[in-house]
Predict the structure.
Amino acid sequence: MAHRQRILVAVDFSETSEHALDYAADLARRLGDELHVLHVYHLPTYALPQVMPLPTKELTDELVRAVQKSLESMVDEHREGLSVEGHLAEGVAYEVILEKASALDAELVVVGTHGRSGLGHTLLGSTAEKLVRLSPIPVTTVRGARGRSALVPER
């Protein structure tokens, strides 16, 4: 029996990451691979002079529940004909994605890219760019509008 490979796709619930998920799901279906959908969140903190308060446990729990529900909904949309699992983690996105890919022994990481340049790129950085530079396994970046997979020709 052939080894089922693992594809890890990182999502941030943007239209771009939904398109990346569609692409990764199409690829996993065609290859008979497992799909792992990862969302990495970072809890907000509020910087005040000489104080760095953390969000309350209640707020944290509420945020995590909302994100988990969104992730489950996204995963459920892609279950048909596919072995798919959702993962939720806290931390710095590119670091957690690399750690999860290693832990899953993934053969491919798929991530959406917004294609920012100039000041937007400088201020926000690029998770996709960091993954491409630092990942020991192949990274596929996906740009474009959702609704049509790059793998399936339009009829």
